[in-house]
Specification:
5 strands, 1 helix
């Protein structure tokens, strides 16, 4: 049986509704079945620079889609 492959993307949110005082970083797991699952753990930061520094090394930054939540500031793959 093949294991389901997972790609984790990292989202930096700019003061989202559930954390209005912080920048928030949350991982999203994307499966080869097309499922998108948010990770339970988030990290909260006072500055955008701190949020970026918390990301795993070796990622590439992309901009969010225009139809994404306005709180999504950056997407990292």
């Amino acid at each position: 049986m093949d294991k389901e492959r997972v790609l984790t993307i990292w989202i930096i949110y700019d003061h989202p509704l559930d954390y209005p005082n912080d920048y928030v970083v949350r991982g999203w797991d994307i499966t080869n079945q097309g499922d998108n699952m948010p990770q339970d753990k988030v990290t909260r930061h006072e500055t955008l620079e701190e949020a970026r520094a918390s990301l795993p090394p070796g990622l590439y930054r992309t901009d969010p889609f225009t139809e994404d939540d306005p709180a999504i500031l950056e997407v990292w793959i």
